[in-house]
Amino acid sequence: MTLIVQKYGGTSIGTVERIQAVAKKIVKAKQAGLDIVVAVSAMSGETNRLINLAREISASPCARELDVVVSTGEQVTIGLLSLAIKELGVEAVSYTGSQVRILTDDAHGKARIQEIDAKNISQDLQQGRVVVVAGFQGVNNNGSITTLGRGGSDTTAVALAAALSAKECQIYTDVDGVYTTDPRVVERARRLDRITFEEMLEMASLGSKVLQIRAVEFAGKYGVPLRVLSSFEDGPGTLISAEEDGSMEKPVISGIAFNRDEAKLTLRGVPDTPGIASQIIGPIGDANIEVDMIVQNVGEDQSNDFTFTVHRSEYDKAVGVLNGVAKQIKAKEVVTDNRIAKVSIVGVGMRSHAGVASTMFRALANESINIQMISTSEIKISVVIEEKYLELAVRTLHTAFGLDMDGTG
Amino acid sequence: MTLIVQKYGGTSIGTVERIQAVAKKIVKAKQAGLDIVVAVSAMSGETNRLINLAREISASPCARELDVVVSTGEQVTIGLLSLAIKELGVEAVSYTGSQVRILTDDAHGKARIQEIDAKNISQDLQQGRVVVVAGFQGVNNNGSITTLGRGGSDTTAVALAAALSAKECQIYTDVDGVYTTDPRVVERARRLDRITFEEMLEMASLGSKVLQIRAVEFAGKYGVPLRVLSSFEDGPGTLISAEEDGSMEKPVISGIAFNRDEAKLTLRGVPDTPGIASQIIGPIGDANIEVDMIVQNVGEDQSNDFTFTVHRSEYDKAVGVLNGVAKQIKAKEVVTDNRIAKVSIVGVGMRSHAGVASTMFRALANESINIQMISTSEIKISVVIEEKYLELAVRTLHTAFGLDMDGTG
């Protein structure tokens, strides 16, 4: 029998009625001849309610005990969903993370899955049961309950799919798939039928609204095909999988990602000596500030301009650290800007297509959008521009790379 | 170190503030030099909320899955209470029934404890931790979560006390102990300092409001001293323990129990032949009706009157069954009465004191209260009277056996 792992998140199962609707979806798949394992989150709002209860008692609750409290959210859902499936005449059985046994490390609140014992689940499947597993949770070597951190249910689903060699891991959400870009910015954005793991990871700024990046990494690592679908309406969704060699002509660019969460810091007149980059970035890292893009240009007078971006919420902190660094290494000046945006084009096609970068730069130039920074990876080109041009830039690139919806582009 | 097991029920821990108050009580005992293991129920209202969620989905939910859902109630409490204890600077650790491992049989919803593994708890106690255990739940041999049924947290506490050889099992409730009778009926009722297990069991109709009978049986069987205390105010409570031989002069009667939940059925003119009692009571039992008192008198004409009582809610059903029986065994007539009450005097002292019954009957006669049925056990005498005399009878007996509060009796 073909095995599918399905995952339903909080809004998909936010009420008793929604749980019943999900049960119908599952039973339909089961009756179509599939073996089904389901991973579920807590009913929407429940995890926050439980965390707030704990925080009323302790401002910084012990992570082990917080996991004991929070993990009950999914436990309620697995029981209720199993009941709903059984009401429809199909046998079902629930498992907590500990019952499966989803073994994790000891990092309460952000544990990592180390091993899944698939024995019990396999037996239940053989006996025709739907198996409903609590997402987001596991158990450590001491038998303490652990949680995987927010969005960990996606990871549970992928890990189950890998352990059970499932044909596909289906993530049901409140959107019907992954889009070429954010439809709120570009009306003509369209759902992608397929995208590769790497592209999905590079589309992080879009994708994170749909899927946990960690789950995508996990799926990529174990080669588990992932499908994002709507739990509210039928449709094929978007399949995220490994690249198929020459299966069909791929579009050059799969999507346009963007964000306006970053700020830019530049150190001008940095002495061109070995080790200078680490002298700049070291203290930033020591201050627990994450750096995204880094660009270094050699200037005319044997000195460098060194530019990097950080999350906008850490802008002030980063400026403080950088001013200290500037004095120490005798840089000329610090120039900063927190009104920037980052736009990226993503596509495995650019590996085999020349001229992608120049198409991008020309399209932006035609709209008189100035590029402040450029950074490239194998399947992504990112530019930093003035924030006010963000929407225009995304729409322009969406059209330039032929991503607009049929009949309208 | 002296080990005490404490149990806190739903109203004792109904809110975050109550949980914090209970944590203070526990920490106080711990700082007084005691080792403490705590068993807790779900926060009040939580178990019903969870059951209702399940019933919204299924009218008769699968017992295994219902236990998965319902057992989360205590799991939340153990986490929160552990956090509250830690906030007060005392180390604490929580265990679900499955984590302890409280092994039960497979009877979901009314499971019986078979074995408790005390290893982990003992280690934690040695390291100075307060151990907080989820009451009401266990795990069966397959690793499925089971629940012990309503009030099962008392049983968990007693079982833990037995497994850990605790000095005492303290049940914290919303009353400050066991009373000679219901204070709402007799103003001069007073709290008992001590009562034996057997007396407590015979006082069931009073005691069941305070303690689960099953927990008392369990405590008696394993010789675990039980103490009932208020979780809202300080006080010594009532100690329920084995009889101490000649430790001090015991009162003849410890308390007056009563109920008005029963109805009386009489079969007149029953042929006096062997096996006739089972021909009458058999069909009642087959109809799942529980019988309380049974009395049989030999009449003048070689025929018997056979009388028994059932719970009032099963009165109609019992009358129906009995009419059928009457025809079959050719009894003269069926006479029934559901306006009765049962009053019992309870005390181990009656074993060694003569004249207890006659004191009881004379006291009732002095108030012109007619006795309809009498039933005796080693430490209890019960009478059935007309319901309207109930309060008068209880007050009269309370005074007659010297139970009234000092200075007022």
Q: What secondary-structure arrangement, pairings included, does this model have?
A:
The structure is a homodimer of 409-residue chains.
Chain A: E1 3-8, H1 16-31, E2 35-40, H2 46-57, H3 63-70, H4 72-87, E3 92-95, H5 97-100, E4 102-104, E5 113-116, H6 119-126, E6 130-134, E7 137-139, E8 145-147, H7 152-163, E9 168-173, E10 194-196, H8 197-202, H9 204-207, H10 213-222, E11 226-230, E12 238-241, E13 255-259, E14 262-271, H11 276-286, E15 291-298, E16 303-311, H12 315-329, E17 333-337, E18 340-346, H13 356-366, E19 373-377, E20 380-386, H14 390-400
Parallel strand pairs in A: 1-2, 1-9, 2-6, 3-6, 9-11, 10-12
Antiparallel strand pairs in A: 4-5, 7-8, 11-12, 13-18, 14-16, 14-17, 15-16, 18-20, 19-20
Helix pairs in contact in A: 1-4, 7-10, 11-12, 13-14
Number of helices of chain A: 14
The CATH H-level superfamily of the domain at 3-173 in chain A is Acetylglutamate kinase-like
> What do we call the CATH topology of the domain at 3-173 in chain A?
Carbamate kinase
Structural class of chain A: alpha/beta
The CATH architecture of the domain at 3-173 in chain A can be given as 3-Layer(aba) Sandwich
Taking the sheet with the most strands of chain A, its summary is: 8 strands, mixed
The separation of the N and C termini of chain A measures: 43 Å
Largest protein-protein interface = A-B, 38 and 38 residues
Indicate the percent of residues in helices of chain A. 25-40%
**Count of strand segments of chain A:** 20
* Strand neighbour order, sheet with most strands of chain A: 3-6-2-1-9-11-12-10
Chain oligomer state: homodimer
